[in-house]
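Complex 130.
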Amino acid sequence: MCLKEQALKVRENAYAPYSNFKVGAALRTEGGDVYTGCNVENVAYPEGTCAEAGAIAAMVANGQKRLTAIYIVADAPKPVSPCGGCRQKLIEFADGDAQVTMATLDGVEKTMTLGELMPGAFTEEHLENT
Ligand code: THU
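Predicted structure with tetrahydrodeoxyuridine bound:
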């Protein structure tokens, strides 16, 4: 199954009773494995987690740490863009040339690199004097 199909499938399991905005994400590691995640909300709203965070957690739980592509899909009027926090989470485990494909349920897609989405990111290099 391709990333799109996996993201659409996992989206169905999203737990989003508060926003009614279900998101699915599927990422590919540098070794070619695929991990998926969906958003999981909570009655204490800030405790919810994004689909991208779920996919990253699944990857790391399986002992892998580098992703090269991610596909994110939601029922939105325009391709769903990862939030700022998720961009930072992605940067932790991907290079700037990683492909981020944002999509709608209608099949509209937009692909950008992570570097384009997160210019000037705070990275390990900033900690070099510590
Ligand atoms: N959300 C994601 O899971 N990923 C995104 O890229 C954008 C937003 C979730 C968080 C929350 O559960 C819902 O979508 C509405 O913001």
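Residues 16 and 41 are 5 Å apart (CA to CA).
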